[in-house]
Design goal:
With 100 residues, this protein is mainly α. The protein has three helices and no strands. The protein has one domain (2-98): Non-ribosomal Peptide Synthetase Peptidyl Carrier Protein, Chain A. 75% of the residues lie in helices and 0% in strands. The longest helix has 32 residues, at 39-70. The radius of gyration is 14 Å and the shape is globular. The two termini are 27 Å apart.
Length: 100
């Protein structure tokens, strides 16, 4: 998921983004190429590393980037929706638009 790596670099800078990705792999056994299939684990790891507020900011930024890449309009829904829920919604919206 390029949106994750790109968003981390935009928010935290090159070194900060790289550090987070390295810590995800080292501490949580979560490689960057596996993040898309393990979004819930990624979100929990971010919250542990950055705190709830920090993780929320990063997740929101990631989703904006993700929706932008897909050509979809991103609407922030506040806290309960998770990254996985936003991704499911994006897939559903893409499927609806392709089936028309």
């Amino acid at each position: 998921m390029q949106s994750v790596e790109g968003s981390l670099v935009k928010i935290l800078g090159e070194k900060g983004g790289e550090t987070v990705l390295q810590q995800l792999e080292k501490r949580y056994f979560l490689k960057k190429e596996d993040i898309a299939s393990r979004l819930e684990e990624f979100a929990r790891a971010l919250e542990t590393m950055l705190g709830r507020e920090g993780a929320s900011i990063v997740e929101n930024f990631i989703m904006r980037e993700f929706y932008l890449r897909l050509g979809l309009t991103y609407e922030y829904k506040g806290n309960p929706p998770s990254l996985a829920e936003y991704v499911r919604e994006a897939r559903n919206r893409l499927n609806v638009s392709h089936s028309r």
